[in-house]
Amino acid sequence: MMEKAETTGDPFVSVHEKLPYRWGYFQGVILIPWSLLVILSVASNATKYSHDPWYSQDPWYLTVVGFLMGLLGLPLAIGLLMKKAFALRLVYAMFGLSILLVAIQLPIAIKHYADPGDKSSAFFEAEMLLFWLLSMVYYRKRKAMFH
Fold first, then answer.
1. Is 83 helix (H, G, I), strand (E, B) or coil?
2. Per-residue pLDDT tens over the stretch 4-18
3. What are the angstrom distances between the C-alpha of 83 and each of 17, 21, 27, 59, 94?
4. 3-state secondary structure of 65
């Protein structure tokens, strides 16, 4: 008697034949430079000082969330490339940080709606939330591939 495949529901097709993993490899490769750029950007913005009256430094909690996303991205990239089980938890953590970032940035964007600059938009944060939501769904379907 053949055993049922882990998550596909089809008793004759294994999960490895049914679900490709191209996006996981692509995301793992892209996350390495993205994480490094996020860390460098947050560090640069935290140490920058300007006499420009329109420039205001980001609040500390936005800096912390950005730094955490950059730090989590490096082990997540390695976990996705090697298909390690801890990568799934890190995908959930990145999704949680994206929710937190949207929850912080949305009131700031509403408050500065008519102001010039990028404080009046939470579009990037909403895109990132959608990106991690879709990634979370993608990896949840391939949960059996991780070891």
1. coil
2. 455 556 555 455 557
3. 16, 10, 12, 36, 17
4. helix
